[in-house]
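User: If only I could read backbone structure tokens as easily as an amino acid sequence. Those tokens are not coordinates but codes from a learned vocabulary of shapes. Could you go through the record with me and say what the backbone is doing? Here is the record:
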Amino acid sequence: MTMLPVIPTSPDTPDAVATRRRPSMPPRHLADLDLAGRREAVAALGQPAFRAKQLSTHYFGRLVRDPAAMTDLPTAERARLTGDLLPTLLTPVREQACDAGATRKTLWRLHDGALVESVLMGYPDRVTACVSSQAGCGMACPFCATGQAGLTRNLSVAEIVDQVVYLAGVAASGAVTGSPPRLSRVVFMGMGEPMANYPRVIEAVRRLTAPAPEGLGLSQRHITVSTVGLVPAMRRLIAEELSVTLALSLHAPDDDLRDELVPVNQRWKVAEVLRAAFDYAAQTSRRVSIEYALIRDVNDQPWRADLLGRLLHSKLAHVNLIPLNPTPGSKWDASPKPVEREFVRRLRAAGVPTTVRDTRGREIDGACGQLAASELTVVDAGGAAAEAEVAQ
């Protein structure tokens, strides 16, 4: 593992404990607005409308997030323009790399002290960004580090987009070993339940897929939005007429177990969730990805593989099996490889396309929420020690 620089807390600024303020949405940012909205914002500052395109070209076209590098803006107006439309949204707390530099994970502190994570994954033919849509998560899935932490707040459109723009810049720098220098895919599989922050996630998708300089110019087909199965939001997505990939975090084919593993199943059962997923596939002709974290002696039994195979047979779907990346202190563990292979065999025998997700980032707290959890553990320990010292 390669450890990248950690940005320490300055002695002149509040420490990590003090920066945990009451959750609040960030200031407005260029990425929150479409191009017309940016023109209006620039005009309100008394600047010509073409400045909106200049700012947008820097941010989305050149992946420049540092106002000091925007030298074609008049010096006298640069601070005002960038201060109003390019406020700092994400401050890196910790960055780590592994897999010979092909996997890079960043822990961010937001303006209100909330923590989120994003991951950049390089492959020989593509570079993928995995981004967060919420700080924490309210879905309470017991095997997930983010679910254990609970929900802090939704992210803004710009907080989501800014993760991607930053990671696209990392890819463009050539830092991702053995991969193309252009970010080509984004998956909403980081911290949070994307469908629980539906309006902002959809607006972020539109920003990421709009042609530069309005957006990043990515293909909709290269965007994946995951959900644990919020059926009303899934049905809203059908009406959006987007061609993104829908990923359903199923994790169990039967209601008894899924009620425990994915508590929202107590509201929308397996049959209803799958029906919404299949309707999305029928509307978009896009194959749905069924995410299934294999957990030792919990959901990896042969009969569950057979049941899943029957549910998905002849449907426009494939199964993405995920070897569980256990969190510290958790009772959950990954299934043994022979069990995993038998699960795959049974699904394929039922005619269901099945893949096993590439295991990345175990050395760098790769599971969603692990890096944030470890940072909060350090902060909480420091805070407890300080309180004990004061009490003495």
User: Anything to note?
Assistant: The two ends are 41 Å apart (CA to CA). The CA atoms of residues 251 and 292 lie 4 Å apart. The mean pLDDT is 88. Residues 370-391 form the longest helix (22 residues).
